[in-house]
Write a structure and sequence with these properties.
Layout (H helix, E strand, L loop, with lengths): L1 H11 L7 H37 L2 H44 L5 H26 L4 H23 L6 H41 L7 H31 L7
The protein binds protoporphyrin IX containing FE (HEM).
The site of protoporphyrin IX containing FE has 26 residues, from α2, α3, α6 and α7.
Length: about 250
């Protein structure tokens, strides 16, 4: 049996890369993608399965069901988002550094990353301002999210694209930028709403407390921002997978 296994291995020509850089990049990608599955999986699960089930359930059961499912799903979503961001950002640094070294000026890496951070943080601040104002109806918030996303992508590409920036760096600038808006929304908007809703629901289920008047407003904010996040996964996954498999933004 051992001999059979040895023959099979020799025919497969198994050979792991011997350099640290290949290992680092592969581990970053592996962990990044696994965490992304958990993040987006738990987001879709809440939107497509949990919320419709809660809407159909009887009023008396709804709070107990929500408490049994939402806190765990929300925890998975928040912390997998942290892993996705950290590992993705480290990988993005490697891509930007490779292009900067090819351009003969390593400091370009920080220039590109600085422009990237400014564009997407700015986009998030505008979007969050719109959400927190409490004055904009859902369709306008959707439009605002679309406008800030397209504007940030446009400005980012206009300032970073050049003969030495590769398709990988440009695709991740846009996909990672949209992913960053989603990440900030998870921690800055979604979790703050979920914390309130969970506390109010727990008080209602355990002590029979009445729901406060803001309950419906917070629930609506959570629903709109979660739905926008779910739609944004489509361009994020497009740009993430295009980085290495669909060179359309640069000849490099
Ligand atoms: C919702 C958030 C995200 C999702 C679902 C996601 C998903 C993915 C997937 C599936 C891949 C593998 C693509 C492939 O091998 O073809 C990938 C690669 C990558 N991601 Fe993300 N990602 C997200 C956020 C981010 C963020 C925020 C950054 C950086 C700040 C980032 C940086 C990267 C990088 C650098 C790669 C490797 C690209 C390459 O060389 O092919 N990602 N991502």
């Amino acid at each position: 049996m051992l001999a059979g296994a040895m023959i099979m291995l020799s025919e497969l020509n198994v050979k792991f890369p011997s350099d640290g850089a290949s290992w680092e990049q592969f581990m970053l990608r592996w962990i990044h993608v696994t965490a992304a599955i958990l993040w987006i999986g738990s987001l879709y699960f809440q939107i497509l399965v949990v919320v419709p089930a809660l809407m159909k359930s009887e009023q008396t059961m709804r709070g107990k069901m929500a408490l049994a499912v939402i806190p765990k799903a929300a925890w998975i979503m928040r912390w997998s988002a942290v892993v996705v961001w950290l590992f993705g950002f480290r990988y993005f640094m490697i891509l930007a550094k490779t292009d900067a070294l090819n351009a003969g000026d390593v400091s370009l890496m920080w220039r590109w990353i600085g422009i990237w951070a400014a564009c997407w943080l700015g986009a998030f601040v505008i979007f969050m301002g719109g959400v927190e104002s409490g004055k904009l109806p859902a369709p306008i918030l959707v439009l605002l999210a679309a406008i800030v996303t397209v504007a940030a992508a446009w400005i980012n590409l206009a300032l970073v694209a050049g003969p030495m920036t590769s398709n990988k760096t440009l695709c991740i600038s846009v996909g990672g930028g949209i992913g960053t808006i989603m990440f900030l929304a998870v921690w800055g908007i979604v979790w703050r709403c979920q914390k309130k809703l969970i506390a109010w629901t727990r008080a209602a289920v355990e002590q029979g407390a009445a729901m406060p008047p803001e309950f419906a407003m917070v629930q609506k904010k959570l629903a709109v921002v979660s739905a926008i996040g779910a739609v944004l996964t489509i361009p994020v996954i497009f740009f993430m997978t295009a980085a290495s498999h669909f060179p359309f933004l640069s000849g490099r």
